[in-house]
Design goal:
Layout lengths: L1 H12 L4 E3 L4 E3 L1 H32 L1 E7 L5 H13 L4 E7 L1 H9 L5 E6 L9 E15 L10 E2 L7 E5 L4 H12 L5 E6 L2 H11 L3 E4 L12 E18 L6 H15 L4
Parallel strand pairs: 3-4, 3-5, 7-11, 8-9
Antiparallel strand pairs: 1-2, 5-11, 6-10, 6-11
């Protein structure tokens, strides 16, 4: 059987690998050169298989989460921290990004879980969702603005106000544009901002108005500078843990279960 395999290999390569005599069988010069390459190929195969095995093990022990940059997600990071402490062998890959990039990371496979704000309460994109919180979107207005004394502010009343629009990568930008257009006008703006403190300083300095997630500002001192007022009509956002159940690693499945227990109060 061995002789047959050697003959088949020689026929395939088109060269003689062994010198055969009645007393011995020895490698030809070319056969000895090919043997060196064969050994390298075997070593590379073993190295590749080892790399694959290590990568699969690392992936199965990694939790991949895309998460928007947000000041009000403190409790979510607390969940991540306590999960990591209880599961030290797991790696937490938290990728912070913009609102619109969160789901792109899930689509391209970089993340299997997303922690994100959404504007619609129910989605039909095939992902599973676990509700984290519901937040009211409000109007942030300088105290010196006459509208600041109102209990609530109609979007239509903002028609002649200068807006501080959020970045186009923020869902608040989508809301600002949509609600203004629904009320028959395009928002006038001269500034764009992104994070919490930039928004607050721009609204104060330029006397602009903007829409804001109420929970982002609950811990901030708004007195004598600006106020948050409910919108008319009322606007809400929904913060969810979103995941693709078809690509979860073992660690990610455990994190989902841990998150569900935390939200039910069992882990707090």
């Amino acid at each position: 059987a061995l002789s047959r395999h050697i003959k088949e290999l020689e026929d395939e390569l088109g060269v003689q690998l062994f010198e055969r005599s009645a007393k011995s069988v020895e490698l030809t010069w070319l056969g000895s050169q090919i043997l060196g390459y064969a050994r390298k190929m075997i070593a590379l195969r073993d190295e590749c298989m080892g790399m694959i095995s290590d990568a699969v093990e690392r992936m199965d022990n990694t939790v991949r989460i895309s998460c928007t940059r947000n000041w009000s997600f403190t409790d979510f990071y607390k969940i991540v921290e306590t999960f990591k402490k209880e599961n030290p062998n797991y790696s937490m890959d938290i990728m912070q990004c913009t609102d619109h990039e969160v789901f792109k990371m899930m689509e391209n496979g970089r993340a299997a879980i997303a922690f994100a704000r959404e504007l619609r309460e129910k989605q039909t994109d095939g992902y599973e969702r676990i509700r984290f919180s519901t937040d009211e979107i409000r109007v942030l207005i300088p105290c010196k603005d006459p509208l600041s004394s109102r209990e609530s502010v109609s979007i239509l009343e903002l028609k002649n106000r200068m807006f501080m629009l959020h970045s186009t990568n923020s869902i608040l930008h989508d809301v600002e544009m949509q609600v203004c257009r629904d009320n028959g006008f395009e928002p006038s703006y001269s500034l764009r901002g992104m994070d919490l403190y930039e928004t607050m300083s721009l609204v104060r300095g330029a006397e602009c108005v903007c829409l804001a997630f109420g929970s982002d500002y609950l811990s901030e001192n708004l007195n004598n500078v600006y106020v948050l007022k409910p919108c008319v009509p009322r606007l809400y956002s929904f913060t969810n843990l979103v995941y693709n159940k078809n690509i979860l690693t073992g660690a990610e499945k455990k994190f989902i279960s841990y998150y569900q227990e935390w939200m039910s109060g069992a882990k707090r």
